[in-house]
Amino acid sequence: MFADFLKRLVQPGPAPLPDTDARLALTALLVRVARSDGHFDAEERARILKIVTRRYGLSPEGAEQLLADAAQLETEAPDTVRFTRAIKDAVAHDDRIAVIEALWAVVLADGSRDDAEDALLRLVSNLLGINDRDSAMARQRVENQP
């Protein structure tokens, strides 16, 4: 279903993604992080829906459809390294910091941090060109949100 999209995303020197493709790729990355501990629970799902609804101004139905498409894309996407590097090449640096904040929000949604989630966040941050300090600061901003 997403073969052409993935092909464009992982080709050498991908062009910046159109908004709809960027939404899909970034939401798929949120799903990948949520699934990294072997559980994609209701809290994580609700957090992703909240993130995409707010970030993209989607209706509840639109957010549900984006999440469904992203979950399917995540299962078809290549390994995390290639997938994340492709996103890095296609998304501006400031937007990648916001992505890290969203990823931390998903990791923390269920009230616990798992070693697998921490390891994946460390890898993804690095691959997105975000250093450990900036990732930790992003995590702290998420933890301090009311």
From TrEMBL:
CDD domains: terB_like_2 (cd07313). Signal peptide: none annotated. This is TerB family tellurite resistance protein. SUPFAM superfamilies: TerB-like (SSF158682). It holds the Pfam family TerB. Residues 23-140 form the Co-chaperone DjlA N-terminal domain. It comes from Thalassobius vesicularis.
